[in-house]
Design a protein that fits this description.
By secondary structure, the chain is an all-beta fold. The protein has four domains: 45 residues, no CATH class; 94 residues, Immunoglobulins (Immunoglobulin-like); 96 residues, Sandwich (Immunoglobulin-like); 78 residues, no CATH class. The strands form eleven sheets. The chain has a four-stranded mixed beta sheet, with no helix packed on it. The protein has a four-stranded mixed beta sheet with strand order 15-22-21-18, with no helix packed on it. A four-stranded parallel beta sheet has the order 23-25-27-31, with no helix packed on it. This is Type I secretion target GGXGXDXXX repeat-containing domain protein. It comes from Cardiobacterium valvarum F0432. InterPro entries: Cadg (IPR006644), Cadherin-like_sf (IPR015919), Hemolysin-typ_Ca-bd_CS (IPR018511), Hemolysn_Ca-bd (IPR001343), Ig-like_fold (IPR013783), Serralysin-like_metalloprot_C (IPR011049). Keywords: Calcium.
């Protein structure tokens, strides 16, 4: 070089033939070199002259999309991996290409999706919230200002998730002969699948149908009914099931406790005739010689000790027994309670 530095590595000079030769590197930029040529004789005397070498690199040809990237599918909750075909892009200049990936709108890839530029590989595990369609853009750059891009579709396919219990059902209470209603909380169940619809059903926890007096409206989630007045105190264990479109289910249960509808019929100090109902009654004759007529249900008969003689008449074809100083008729569905001075 005219400044005393050696020639650039890509430039060769043959001192015998006086020929320069060069192969410009791809990354060569427009530039000018001042090259000095020196002639030396046997005695060491020299002559020197210089010339300019102007470098104009060839125009860059941008990369091109070569093979279409086909649409892809990934399943929710399953690891997905996809490697771009090696011939997805080509560069007419033979430049080495580097790759980047984003959504078509320029936004970054979702957090679950990773792109390894060196390996041209996408990978990740989508979740339920990622179900849907993505439009992905891959850009190839040659490092000299040229680039090419192509898009492909990625569908994240939903895998059904079973419904879940969201709010526990509270235990309930009712009374024989009185209407009872209960609407399930709107958040009793939930389903994380987008667009899924839950269908409700109800039966006893042991698999038997609900009692005939109890109805369940699956559309509104409401129970309603009137337990018979003859209903004895007890508890129903009711199970509610939520079923999604795919048949997956969630189930929870609650207790419905029914209190007996007990009515008390009390006599006077005289001789009374007292009749019960078809429900659960307490018949208390009080003093005097009383006639007591229990009907249906589970009845309690109270006798006043030392205050007359009461007679119980079976309205339901029971049987009779004489006990102590009192006349007592026993029935399969009634209880006799004897107390004195109460």
């Amino acid at each position: 070089m005219d400044n005393g530095q050696p020639l650039p590595s890509w430039l060769k000079f043959d001192g015998k033939t006086g020929q320069f030769s060069a192969t410009l590197p791809k990354e060569a930029k427009a530039s000018a070199y001042r090259i000095a040529v020196t002639a030396t004789d046997k005695a060491g005397a020299q002559a020197k002259q210089a010339f300019n070498l102007d470098i104009t690199p060839p125009a860059n040809t941008a990369p091109q999309a070569a093979t279409t990237i086909v649409a892809q599918k990934a399943n929710e909750k399953s690891r997905w991996q996809f490697t771009l075909p090696a011939n997805a892009f080509r560069d007419p200049d033979g430049d080495t290409l580097t790759y980047t990936a984003s959504l078509v709108d320029g936004k970054a890839l979702p957090k679950w999706l990773y792109f390894d530029a060196a390996k041209r590989t996408f990978s990740g595990t989508p979740g339920n919230d990622d179900v849907g369609n993505l439009s992905i853009r891959v850009t190839a750059t040659d490092g000299r200002g040229g680039s090419a891009a192509q898009n492909f579709a990625l569908e994240v396919v939903n895998v059904n998730d079973a419904p879940q219990i969201d709010t526990a059902l509270a235990n309930q209470q009712g009374t024989g002969g009185k209407q009872w209603q209960y609407r399930l909380p709107s958040d009793a169940f939930r389903d994380i699948d987008k667009g899924d619809v839950l269908t409700l059903s109800a039966k006893l926890d042991n698999g038997q149908p609900l009692p005939s007096w109890l109805a369940f409206d699956a559309a509104t989630g409401q129970f309603s009914g009137t337990p018979p007045s003859s209903e004895q105190a007890g508890t129903y264990r009711i199970a509610v099931t939520a079923t999604d479109k795919a048949g997956a289910q969630a189930r929870q249960a609650f207790n419905l406790s029914i209190a007996a509808d007990i009515r008390t019929f009390k006599g006077t100090a005289g001789n009374d005739q007292i009749s019960g109902t078809d429900g659960n009654d307490v018949l208390d004759g009080g003093a005097g010689n009383d006639s007591l007529f229990p009907m249906g249900g589970s009845d309690i008969i109270r006798f006043k000790g030392n205050f007359g003689q009461d007679t119980v008449f079976n309205g339901n074809n029971g049987y009779a027994r004489i006990a102590e100083d009192y006349t007592v008729l026993e029935f399969p569905d009634l209880k006799a309670e004897d107390y004195c001075g109460k």
